[in-house]
Amino acid sequence: MKHQSFCLRVDTEKAPQFIDITDWVSQCVAQSEVRNGFAVVYSKHTTAAIKINENEPLLLEDMSRFLERLSPREGCYAHNDFSIRTVNMTPDEAPNGHAHLQHLLLGTSETVPVIDGLMQFGRYQSIFFIELDHPRPREVMVQVVGE
Q1: Can you tell me the distance from the alpha carbon of 56 to that of 60, in angstroms, rounded to the nearest whole number?
Q2: Domains, in order of start, for the chain
């Protein structure tokens, strides 16, 4: 069984931001030379997600507004109260409870079947890296496994 891993640095510009990484993942699959297996697309962050959905501009706006309604940036989160929080604090810590809660709903990874060397997508499916917190450098991993 073959396997190959890839990593992409993504410099995000805003939050939320839906970045279509479908072409890059397809290139990873082609480079892996796996004919039949699967590709796992994984975010290395607790405030940036991976999801498959449709790349349609108005839908992306709807999804952004949906996430904001579910977990508003300006909401009240204990995670954001730096006067009481003592765990996982860094010098550049940002109040990002909203992003963690949004991530809880979206998730860290997606798995796509690979058949005859091609990812098996439905007609409108794209893979998105979704920034939920604030602009910064991020990393996305792909691991392609199969024969």
Answers
A1: 6
A2: 22-50+110-147 (2.60.120.460)
Task: Please give the structure tokens belonging to residue 20.
Answer: 């279509």
DSSP for 62-114 reads: HHHHHHHHHS-TTS--GGG-TTT--SS--TT----HHHHHHHHHH-SEEEEEE
Place of tokens 């939920």: 132
- Global pTM? 0.96
**47, burial (CB in 10 Å: exposed 0-12, middle 13-18, buried 19+):** buried
Average pLDDT of the chain, as a whole number: 97
The amino acid that residue 69 corresponds to is R
Contacts of 56 (CB under 8 A, 6+ apart): 124
Q: pLDDT confidence of 92, banded at 50, 70, 90?
A: confident
Residue labelled with tokens 């952004």: 64
Which 3 state secondary structure label does DSSP give 57?
helix
Would the pLDDT of 37 be above 90?
A: yes
